[in-house]
Structure formats: structure tokens, C-alpha cells
Automatic annotation (TrEMBL):
PANTHER family: BTB/POZ DOMAIN-CONTAINING PROTEIN 9 (PTHR46306), BTB_POZ DOMAIN-CONTAINING PROTEIN 9 (PTHR46306:SF1). GO terms for cellular component: cytoplasm. InterPro entries: BACK (IPR011705), BTB_POZ_domain_cont_9 (IPR052407), Galactose-bd-like_sf (IPR008979). This is BACK domain-containing protein. It comes from Meloidogyne enterolobii (Root-knot nematode worm).
Amino acid sequence: MTTCLDFIDNCATELLGTQAFIDLPAQALVKILSRNSFCAPEIEIFNAVKQWIETHPDEEPEFSSILAQIRLPLIKVNDLFEHVRESSLISPDQILDAIKDQNTLSSSQLKYRGFLFPGINIATVSFGAKVISGDFRTALLSNPSNYDEGVPTDRTFSKHLINPRDPGITIELGRPFIINCIKFQLMDRDQRAFSYYIEVSIDKNDWVRVIDHTLYLCRSKQNLFFESRVVKFIRIVGTLSSVNNTFQLCNFEALCSTEQFEIDTKTTLQIPRSNVATISNNAIVTEGVSRSRNALLNGDTTNYDWDNGYTCHQLGSGALVVQLPQPYLIETMRFLLWDCDDRCYSFYVEVSVDQIKWTKVVEFNECRSWQIAQFEKTSVVFVRIVGTYNSANEVFHCVHFECPAMDINEAIEEERMKKVQNVKASVTDYCSRASTSNISNERSNLNNKQENGQCNNFLGITENDNTFDVEENDKEEIIKENDEDDEQEEQNDGIESIEELLSDN
């Protein structure tokens, strides 16, 4: 059904003059005409409906519901008097109301129709788009999504001067399109940041602000969402550059996205449901020490040790600072503190949108491993993590950061699987080193130790060691996976000994 409706939308004008339109049943006609994406001149839609009514006099009970789909304020006044009024299908009061709406309502308040191409960038030359204001206009729509970083010239960017009288960068689309998403890349060859707003219009007179990032520092790729609306003109106006008085864009896309998203209508900010503090989302670490750049954001929560895989700072000096590419409304965060031993940490978290005013949102005391923060929903561009205590030394270490936080059950399962992997690695190592003869001896010795209540030091386990502190179902999972590997009988005997040991522990 959706495919058929999409096809009808794309051929709306052609369909109106065919016998296929006349043959449509009443309910199907109502469904088609009610779609914002059924885009054709409204007077042509009215004339086609008039012909349908004349052909189906027996469907009179359905006439009112069909005529209700005609958007009279979109019909010119002359056509309302010459065609609509003479048809006697629309009452004089309805015609007068339509004329009143044309004179009193802004274009953004009228219910326009537009062309719909889900998931396709329509801000391209092939779709008839063009840049009508700004400097170096041809660069904006011709640049690919990943612009050539080897050509650092001003002519690879479209730009405008930041001042109240400058109209900004304006794109005129080839036709009215239904869009809900705009993507572009800000000039990011250094650490510069920008503030801006975006307005859209159907007639270049009445503008509606759909994105307002004038209070936030933004960088690199911008993925912006808003409520679907019919648009013919898009205007991006820079209000601040951290380097000079020029606002620069590398490329630009506009589309009707099929992604699920949530927007706060008051701030126009996104409320993300998946982690946006990632390298792929262009988040960066601006402060903190690590052997690997952006290790805090690379998503690796297993491959870390005493030397690698974490980001740190000296207690009492500095912090870990993460910058998101654009502002989001955030209410949860998750942290993985370095936990290769039993040390614990204390730290607090502050957020900011401009690196000037910081707000503390959460504080943790003497905690370790995974931590989840929950706080009142707030605008976030910068996150500052400040360590205040380490039970082992004077350095704060963090392995992983994300916002918003993953589901807490996922965090628990991830920690459980990490423990399971530690035990599996120890079991495998033990089995590979043991021979047939000494495995038998170890089993005999192990049984003796179990009878005497002494098994805590086997394989280096101590009473305070949490590495092997796993649940019973984890142990069964380990043994089952080793059995399925079809290892030698002697190794299986060794695994059974480890199982007995874990059960006692």
C-alpha cells in the first residue's frame, strides 16, 4: 500500500487527468487527497474532484468528506470565483473563509502540499536546487559529504560575513519538498566553533525558525531534525565564529528522514536515545591524557590494561573534557572507571554549552567500574569529568564515556560477560599448560585440598579477588563452551577440576 501511495504522489499531476483517477473508490480518493505529499496545483485537484463527482452521482453521501480534502486557501482568488463558486460544490461562506485565510494567515500557517522523497537528499543540482545568497555559492551543493581535506582553500566552502545585515546562506529548492532533516558540515580544519540558526520558508517572505543554535558552540558535522514541513527556501545564518567573523559551510543536505527522533519544541534540540559521544558522531576529547587519541569515546570497554585503553588526569589539576559536535538534551551518562584492580574513585561531572558557564550535574564518591548518572534533562555540548580521589594513587582514570547511558541491564550484562571471559581465559591457560600426568595429580591434590578446606590459593585466587566471583550459570556456560570445543579428554578433566574449585569459591 505504501509503495502504491508513493507512486501516486510522484505522479499526482499526471494522475488527475486519467480515467484511473475517475475510477477510484470514494474511500481511496479521500485517503489520497488527504496526503500532504499528493502535490499538484490545488485548482487542478478541485477540477479533477468535480469530474469524479459528476461521474459518480450515486456516491452523494461521500461528497462532503471528499470535498473537505480540498485546500481552498491554496487556490487563487480568481479561480475561487471563476471555477469553485460556479461549480456550486462549495458554499459561499466557505469561499469567503478561504479568502480571509489568505489575507490573515501567514504562509507557514497554511497547509501546503509538497513532494516527498523519503531518505533522499533533495538539495542537489539534479533536483533543481541552487544557492541564492552567500559567497562561493557553487561550492556548497557540489561538495560531497566527505569533502576533500587536501584542498584547504576558501573556495571549497560557501560562507558569509557574520553581521546583523547579512542574509546568510540561502538555498532555493527546485520544488516545494517535505523535509524534516538538514545535514551539513561546518569548516573544521582546526578547533574553531560556530553558532547559527536555520529558517525555512515556502515563499521567501514568511520564515520559520526550525533550528536555533545561537547559544551553543557547534563544530564539524551537524545532523539536525525538526517536525516535517513543506519547504521551498532554507536559510542558514551564522551568529558567531570562535576564530573570525566568517561563517563557513563545507556541504549541505536536506531530506525527509525515515529515522526515529525526538525533538524538544521549545529549544529545537534533539533528545537522543542512543550514545552520541562517539567518534563516528564527531565527538572529541579536548582535555585529558591518553596513549590513544579519543580512547574515551572509541567504544572499547574490554581491551584495556595498566598501560593502555584509558584517559586520565592528575588529581587536583585538569580534567577530562568531551565536546559533542552539536547541543543535545541529555539526562543520563555512563562511565567505565579503570578497574584492573580493586581501587575506587571519587569524581564529579559538569556540563556546559559554551565552556564559560558550567553546571554540576552529578557527583560520585568511592566507586569503581561501571557508573550511571541520572539528572534533570539539560542542554549539553561540553562534559567535564573531574576526579577528586583515587584509593591507589593521585591519578583519575576513565576507560569509557557515553551519553545518554545505555540501558542499565545492558551494563550489568556487559560486566558479567567480562568476568566470564576472565575465567575462561584462566581455564584455557591452565589446560594448555597441564599434561596428562600432572592433571591427574592436580585432581588428586585438589580433592585433598577441598577436604581440608584449602583451595583459595589455587590459580592465584585469594579471598579478596573478585576476578572469579561469578554466578553459577556463568560457570556452567564456561564449561559448556569448552566441552563444545571437543578438546582432549585430559583437558576436560582439568576443566572439571576448575569447575569444582569455582563452586567451592
